[in-house]
Design goal:
Length: 150
């Protein structure tokens, strides 16, 4: 029984450490319409030779369900998440560390808030340094292409 409690305690401490070490997202802002920026992001993904597997309309879902969950605040005037993968980059990062499979598919989010209309945020999660650098580079390139940043 002591061993089981020790394992549970160690797992709790480890989980707490993982939560505490959560990384910030990589983000850029653009002054444009939400529709123009989402269109540009999708075109940049396709232009990189990739296929958008899914677009999650997260902002619409949160607005549609806000009454059902007892919420009153509108979080986003628009929020979409594009999911996709790259066979080349995925093979590279998973060859380096097979557990990198946990990060695929990759996503780029786009959102606008009621507090900042016309200011669109585009970004992606921060991945571990080292073996996931090719993914970070790929996603950075896609975002910069979409926002026409050098």
């Amino acid at each position: 029984m002591k061993r089981l409690i020790g394992v549970a305690l160690a797992a709790t401490v480890l989980m707490g450490a993982q939560i505490a070490s959560a990384q910030e997202a990589h983000t850029w802002t653009a002054e444009d319409s939400f529709e123009n920026v989402t269109f540009a992001v999708e075109n940049a993904i396709v232009g990189a030779g990739l296929v958008v597997d899914h677009v999650s309309h997260t902002g619409n879902m949160l607005e549609r369900t806000k009454d059902a969950v007892g919420a009153t605040k509108t979080l986003f005037t628009g929020a979409d998440i594009f999911s996709f993968c790259s066979a080349k980059v995925s093979r590279e990062v998973m060859t380096s560390d097979i557990t990198n499979v946990q990060y695929c598919p990759y996503t780029i989010f786009v959102y606008e808030t009621p507090e900042n209309p016309g200011e669109i945020t585009v970004g992606f999660r921060d991945y571990p340094k080292g073996s996931m650098d090719p993914v970070t580079d790929m996603l950075t390139g896609i975002v910069k292409e979409a926002l026409m940043i050098d």
